[in-house]
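Researcher: Good morning. I'm working through a list of sequences from a screen, and I'd like to move beyond sequence-only analysis. For each chain I'm collecting a predicted structure so we can compare shapes side by side. This is the next one on the list. No need for commentary yet; just the structure.
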Amino acid sequence: MKFLNKILIIFAVAFGTSLMFSQKVTTQEIQKPSEGKSLVYFLRTGAGPLLNFRIYDNDKFLGALSGFKYMVYECEPGKHIFWAASENRDYVEADLEPNGVYVINAEGQMGAFIASVGLIPLNPNEFRDKRTFYQVVKMGKRQDYTPQTADKTENIQKGLERYKDLKANKAAKIKFLDPSWKFENADKPEKTK
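Model: Good morning. Structure tokens for this chain:
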């Protein structure tokens, strides 16, 4: 009988411990911008996880993202042209509000030779967008923005020329980040019926 009691106690302790450690994280705080600044999270998801996507803010090279990572970039509020380069270039226009946190997904897509990049502004009112942000912040590796010393002058010139061509032709390829799409957290979203 004592042996059976010991087994039951060991089982109860093991089961209780596994329950304690198996609880899923459902709330995640995110970094907030300094007073009067804006903060942009750049996520990296999709095809070609080993490839680097180079991220830019107008004529400033922010860095390269690969794998299941995200970059946190604090900047001045106002108008920005965010773009990414891989086999292609993709663009997002934004008019950021002070103290806002925004999210843009650099999603890898199948390209002709290597993965191409699609920049997708995320909307905190959309379940799928909130879930993507939650998963990347929970499982991905954070990469803070640090000023880059690499000479990207030629890439920047070509990228901004392409943007001007698209803009002049009123191409639908340029996406827009709505200033109201501010994220408060990276909590696990719940489906509403």
